[in-house]
Design goal:
GO terms for molecular function: phosphorelay response regulator activity; transcription cis-regulatory region binding. By secondary structure, the chain is of the alpha/beta class. The protein is built from 13 helices and 10 strands. It has helices at residues 18-30, 41-50, 67-76, 94-102, 115-141, 160-168, 173-178, 180-188, 232-239, 244-254, 259-266, 270-284, 289-297, and strands spanning 10-14, 34-38, 55-59, 85-89, 107-110, 146-149, 155-158, 198-200, 207-216, 219-226.
Length: 302
């Protein structure tokens, strides 16, 4: 029986130099990578919206829309913001490097590009992006009311369940754009006691926003709480002799996640997740993950 071939990585190269495009195309093609090409920023955004690449190699200086602006616009699109952008340029001054990272780039390499180094860096960022995306899909599929925001209070992404809860509370897109940032800035301010959460002035039902963790240089993971119904975490804590953090780990065990996936979702190391799991086994008097998941599922809505 013939095995299906592995899916090839897709890389979008954005550069107006024919020599650079030719060199990169040959290098990536030899590495078994599918190559898409754009000659300037606006064209890159159009291509990315049509055929989503796994990673983007972006020249900084181009005619019309430069790479910095193209990257900023890419990160504003919820469907494309997860794509890692690696800047390529002949510039090596500190100001340009900082500008690239500020626009949302994950790495910065100078021309002439060294093929082996580029492939190694690209593979590393691809693995990290896939792990992050896998965690986000897990959050989406398990009904978690989670979202992330910048320090300025701008909404970066949210699970479908979080959007539905906001709609149920009578909060439309106009409210999210005009009122949510100011409330989130209050919660994310250094002096604010993040343990107590923040009540949201909603129209149809009371909501609370709770701080979970900082997941990036300018990204914070937050949770929406429907004040009219208990959350799965509250159900587990009420029914079982475990701590709040242990209940978070147990919830993801019940959803079949590995320690590595749990670490990504909860912003902890796999080793820390395993230590919490050891305490859960002891407190629940079980011997393995399956038994712990069965105990948890007995207390969760089907």
């Amino acid at each position: 029986m013939k095995q299906a071939s592995a899916k090839k990585d897709v890389v979008l190269i954005v550069d107006d130099s024919p020599d650079t495009l030719s060199m990169l195309n040959d290098t990536l093609d030899q590495a078994g990578i599918t190559v898409l090409v754009a000659l300037e920023g606006a064209q890159a955004l159009t291509i990315a919206a049509t055929i989503t690449p796994d990673v983007i190699l972006m020249d900084a200086l181009m005619p019309n829309m430069d790479g910095f602006e193209a990257c900023r616009r890419l990160k504003e699109n919820r469907d494309l913001a997860h794509i890692p952008v690696i800047f390529m340029t002949g510039l090596s001054d500190t100001e340009s490097i900082v500008k690239g990272f500020a626009a949302g780039g994950v790495d910065y390499i100078t021309k002439p590009v060294k093929g082996d180094e580029l492939i190694a860096r690209m593979r590393a960022h691809l693995n990290n992006a896939r792990l992050t995306l896998s965690a986000r899909v897990a959050l989406d599929n398990t009904g978690s009311f989670l979202f992330s925001a910048s320090a300025e209070g701008n909404l970066l992404w949210a699970t479908p369940q979080a959007y539905h809860l906001l709609e149920d509370a009578g909060l439309n897109n106009a409210w999210l754009d005009e009122n949510l940032p100011s409330q989130l800035r209050q919660l994310l301010a250094p002096h604010y006691n993040r343990d107590k959460g923040l009540l949201v002035k909603a129209v149809d039902k009371p909501l609370e926003i709770r701080y979970i963790s900082q997941t990036g240089n300018d990204e914070y993971l937050l949770q929406l709480i429907d004040m009219e119904r208990p959350s799965d975490l509250e159900r587990l804590r009420a029914a079982l002799p475990i701590t709040e953090r242990e209940s978070e780990v147990l919830l993801w065990i019940a959803h079949g996640k590995t320690n590595r996936e749990i670490g990504t979702i909860l912003d902890m190391s796999p080793r820390t997740a395993n230590k919490h799991l050891e305490q859960i086994f002891r407190k629940l008097n079980v011997e393995n993950r399956t038994a712990a998941a069965v105990v948890a599922l007995k207390h969760l809505p089907s």
